[in-house]
Amino acid sequence: MPLTPRTGSRRVQAALLASAVSVCLIAASAPSPAEPLGIGDRLFPHLGNPGYDVRSYDLDFTYPGSNSEPLTAVTTIDARTTARLERVNLDFTHGKVASVEVDGASAAFTSAGEDLVITPRAPLPEGTRTRITVRHTSDPVYTGDDEGGWLRTADGLAMANQADAAHVVFPCNDHPSDKAMFTVRITAPDGYTAVSNGLVTGTERAAGSTTWSYRTQHPMATELAQVSIGRSAVLHRTGPHGLPVRDVIPAKDREKLEPWLRKTPAQITWMEDKVGRYPFETYGVLIAEAQTGFELETQTLSLFERELFVRPEYPKWYVESIMVHELAHQWFGNSVSPRTWSDLWLNEGHATWYEALYAEETAGRTLEARMKAAYASSDRWRAAGGPPAAPRKPANGQKIGIFRANVYDGAALFLYALREEIGARAFDLLQRAWVVVHRDGVASTTDFRDLAARISGRDLDAFFHAWLYEVRTPPMPGHPDWKSAPVETSAERQPGSTGV
C-alpha cells in the first residue's frame, strides 16, 4: 500500500527529494539507448536474453469474460544473475506494461523491438538472486505478423506458444534452453473453468468468480506453458502407477469424446514400455474448439483440435497415432528440451518415430513402408527446408515455418537409419538412456551423437554429419535399393503428423 506524506513533514519531504535526486542520477548514468538482445539462436537470434537464469515464474491472469478483451496480469520472475546487469531484458510484446518492480523497488522500463528493457535503481551484481514483478495486460487479439500465444476458442482461450510466442502472452526469457518452475493462477467469472500445467493446488471462490492455482513439479520451457479458460468439463481417470490423468474438453462433448479419452492410460503404458517411466506429475488431453491446423505438446496437457476427433474422414488408427505423437513429446521435447531451435529434430523426429511405431504395432501400418516413402521424398525435403539438424530460417511473419517435413518424417528417417546402423538393441538402449541422462534438462544434437557413440561403442561423427547436415540423403544402411526422387520434379511433402 503506498504511503502519502503528511503536510509539513520535513523528514518525509527531504527523503522524497533525496529519492528523486537518486532516481535522476540513476537515469542519467544508465546506458543508452535501450536495445533488444538475444542469446544468438541461429533461427531466432533475438529470442532469449543473456545475463540471468530464470528459476521460477509466477503468473496471475484475470479473465474478463470475453476472449476479445485483454486480460489483466501480474508476472513475477525469480532469477539468478550470471553477469552484472545494469539493465534486464525480458522478451515481451503486444501487452501494455503498467509498472515494473525489481526486488520490491519500482524500476524504469521501456520497449525495444520485442523486448521489455528494465533499468533497476542499482545494477544487479553477478551471482545474486533477483525478483522482477511486471503488471501488464495480456491481449488475445492479434493483428499483423503475431503468431501463436493466446488461441481464441469457441468458449474462451487456450495457449499455443510454440515456437517463440510465449512472450506475446507474458514477459519471460522465451527460449527453451532456460527452463523454470511455474505457478499459475487464473481468475475467471462463474461458468468458466481454468486449467494450467501441473497439478491444481487450490481454488478460491468469490462473488461472481473463481481463482484456480496450479504448480508444476518439474521445470518447463516457456513455449510449453498452457492455460485453458472455457466452459469446460474436467474428466479424471488413473494412468499407470496411479498417475493422475485429467482431460479438459468442451462440456457439451463429454459423451462424444470419451471413447478417445479413455485410450490415454494404455497409450502411456505403451510409451513406458518403449522408453521408461512417464516423466511428469500428470498428463491429459486438452480439446479446444478452434481452427489451428496443428496439435501441440504443452507440458502435462497436450492441446488438440476438436475436429481431429469428430471428423469421420480421419481413420481411427491415424487419430490414435497423433495422440501418441503428442504424448511422446512429453519425454522428447518437454522433459528433454532442445538446447537450440536447430535441435528441433530431436523433438519432432522422436515423436514421429513413436507415432509411426504405434501405427505399425496397433494398426499394421508398417514402419518400413513409411520410411521407404520418406526416403523417396527426403532430398526434396532437404532442398525445401534444409537438413534435419540445420533447418532453414523461417520467413518473416512465418515463425512456425521451421516445422517442415524435414524435422518430422525426415528426422524419423534418420532414426531408422541409426537403428539399422547400430542395431536394434543399442538403439533401444540409446532411447531409454537419453530420457534418463537429460531428464528435466536441455540437450543438443552433439549430446545425442556422443551418447549414441558411447552406447554403440562406435565413432558416429561421419554418420551423424551426413544424415543430419548434408544437402543430400545418404544411402540407407541395409536398403541399397531405396532411391530418392529427383529434387526438381516434385513439391515438398507435408509431414506425416499434424502435431508439432
UniProtKB/TrEMBL annotation:
Cofactor: Zn(2+)
Record region (Disordered): 478-500
GO function term, MF aspect, one: zinc ion binding
Residue span, Aminopeptidase N-like N-terminal domain: 162-222
InterPro entries: Aminopeptidase_N-like_N, Aminopeptidase_N-like_N_sf, Peptidase_M1, Peptidase_M1_aminopeptidases, Peptidase_M1_dom, Peptidase_M4/M1_CTD_sf
Residues annotated as domain Peptidase M1 membrane alanine aminopeptidase: 264-467
Record field: catalytic activity: Release of an N-terminal amino acid, Xaa-|-Yaa- from a peptide, amide or arylamide. Xaa is preferably Ala, but may be most amino acids including Pro (slow action). When a terminal hydrophobic residue is followed by a prolyl residue, the two may be released as an intact Xaa-Pro dipeptide
Any single GO BP term: proteolysis
Entry-linked CDD domains: M1_APN_like
EC number: 3.4.11.2
Key words of the record: Hydrolase, Metal-binding, Metalloprotease, Protease, Signal, Zinc
Signal peptide start and end residues: 1-34
Pfam families with a match to the protein in the record: Peptidase_M1, Peptidase_M1_N
Membership in a protein family: Belongs to the peptidase M1 family.
PANTHER family according to UniProt: PROTEASE M1 ZINC METALLOPROTEASE
Name of this chain's protein: Aminopeptidase N
Source organism: Streptomyces phaeolivaceus
